[in-house]
Amino acid sequence: MSSLPTEFSAVTVTTKANVYFDGKVVSHTVLFADGTKKTLGLIYPGSFHFKTGVPERMEIVAGDCLVTLDGESEAEEYVASQHFDVPGNSGFTIEVSKGLCEYICSFL
Questions:
Q1: Which domain holds residue 29?
Q2: Which residue of 25, 34, 59, 104 has the fewest CB atoms within a 10 Å radius of its CB?
Q3: pLDDT computed for residue 2 by the predictor
């Protein structure tokens, strides 16, 4: 379980959205003074595969999803306040069956 932040202070937010899969996944980039980067986003119902360059931590803020990491055969369910880590140069498939899944993605 993770302790999710409810807000970020003293950050720069990129106004241009990151739009994937015909608008079914949308996020905004948040840049911190120390150089770290996160994205805050929404995933609509569907199944989507993402590749990673660097390791990532996906924290689920609201909703739920099923996640299959590349190389794994079983999907795991994640709900609000839970997170999963994805290795760099890898990927994952995330599936949302209903509603919205809100997330914070940290680039580690």
A1: 11-107
A2: 34
A3: 56
Q: Tell me, yes or no, whether 89 lies in a domain.
A: yes
Do residues 70 and 89 lie in contact, with contact meaning Cβ atoms separated by under 8 Å?
A: no
Is 3 within a domain?
no
Question: Do residues 42 and 24 touch, judged by C-beta distance below 8 A?
Answer: no
Dihedral (C-alpha) 17, 20, 26, 27: value to the nearest 10 degrees? -60
* Strand ordering across the sheet containing 46-51: 46-51, 91-96, 64-69, 76-79
Residue 33 belongs to a domain: yes
Residue keyed to tokens 């106004």: 15
Distance from C-alpha of 73 to C-alpha of 98, rounded to nearest angstrom: 22
Q: Which residues of the chain have pLDDT under 50?
A: 1
pLDDT tens for 74-96 read: 999 999 999 999 999 999 999 99
